[in-house]
Amino acid sequence: MKVLAAMSGGVDSAVAAARAVAAGHEVIGVHLALSTNPATLRTGSRGCCSREDAGDARRVADMLGIPFYVWDFAERFREDVIDDFVASYAAGETPNPCLRCNEKIKFEALLERGIEMGYDAVATGHYARLAREVDADGATRTVLRRAVDEAKDQSYVLGVLTPEQLEHSMFPLGDSLKPDVRAEAEAAGFTVASKPDSHDICFIPSGDTQAFLGAKIGLRPGAMVDASTGEELGTHDGVHGFTIGQRKGLGLERPAPDGKPRYVTSIDAESGTVTVGGSEHLTVDGLVADRPYWLADDAIRETDCEVQVRAHGNVVPARLVRVDGAEGEEFHLDLGEPLRGVAPGQAAVIYLPDADHGDRVLGSATIRDTRSVAVSA
């Protein structure tokens, strides 16, 4: 099989490429240039896509004896990931840029070009597993499951892939533990064996998201009000500086009357209002999500499941109902256990528990609204 190995310059993608070669596939390595100024996008374990990363990926490809290319997707990354990220925050949402990058860049733009060039699959260093399943009609499909390494599982950020994209994907690390991957890289002589994993938002290597957004969006003053009384407590410079559940950096001059911490409980981008209240206002027992991806038998319209709303967040039982809304299909989720601090813009990834084979991803959607326990009680 002809395989295009996406090589970020890190240890995971290096070992994934090596395993694809060892399996006998015809492999080329591709590093994605996602920044118009690559020299600025790595500070230690922060950031990615720097010249350092491209060089690390090239050295591994040379050791594996495979062709290596750098493909410039910087403009598409800016439009589909960075601009989307900024627009979402300006709208009072809390997006996950890693999902958007997987959706639009690594498994859309990259895969499209690879297939056009005659390649069969894209191999990445994501920790997730693929399996084959036969449905009630006898049709066979590729399904996405959690990785063996629960601490590194990345099925959440892959929940935006389509069934067609899964058919052309390879995740060679899905059955491995991260320490074993590093040991394998060291045994192969890869210099990236001890390279730290990148974290936070790759295109904000400083880690200062508020400063980044402020430079992009500018000042948009609004009011900060109390969730219980409606009293105006102060002003702010823009809703992009806040997210649901935020406790620090609220800029309030006086504490709550009961002395307890205040949290951001809702954001209205249209009016510029940021509402704050006690922790009891953060608990929700229902979600409405739109822009869905469904990876299971389409005949399933309602099912018991589990839902995860953050990349490494808690998983809770839920009842899913797929509903035809005014602007397309929606997921309505009644939670078996309440969640705290859920924000519009986050992804709700739906799992079917399976103790024998690893939880299976049924689909995902973008959270549009929540139902508060405090309000509904």
TrEMBL record:
First-listed, main subcellular location of the protein, grouped into a coarse class: cytoplasm
Subcellular localization(s) per the UniProt record: Cytoplasm
Residues of the tRNA-specific 2-thiouridylase MnmA-like C-terminal domain: 285-367
Entry annotated with the keyword Membrane: no
Keywords: ATP-binding, Cytoplasm, Disulfide bond, Nucleotide-binding, RNA-binding, Transferase, tRNA processing, tRNA-binding
UniProt GO BP: tRNA wobble position uridine thiolation
Reactions that this protein is recorded to catalyse: S-sulfanyl-L-cysteinyl-[protein] + uridine(34) in tRNA + AH2 + ATP = 2-thiouridine(34) in tRNA + L-cysteinyl-[protein] + A + AMP + diphosphate + H(+)
GO terms, molecular function: ATP binding; tRNA binding; tRNA-uridine 2-sulfurtransferase activity
Region (Interaction with tRNA) location: 152-154
Residues annotated as site: Interaction with tRNA: H126, Q346
InterPro entries: MnmA-like (IPR004506), MnmA-like_C (IPR046885), MnmA-like_central (IPR046884), MnmA-like_central_sf (IPR023382), Rossmann-like_a/b/a_fold (IPR014729)
A cellular component term, taken from the record's GO annotations: cytoplasm
Binding site for ATP: A6, M7, S8, G9, G10, V11, D12, S13, L32, G125
Residues forming the catalytic site: C101, C202
The enzyme's E.C. designation: 2.8.1.13
Known function: Catalyzes the 2-thiolation of uridine at the wobble position (U34) of tRNA, leading to the formation of s(2)U34.
Stated family: Belongs to the MnmA/TRMU family.
NCBIfam families (alphabetical): PRK00143.1, trmU
Name of this protein: tRNA-specific 2-thiouridylase MnmA
UniProt source species: Dietzia timorensis
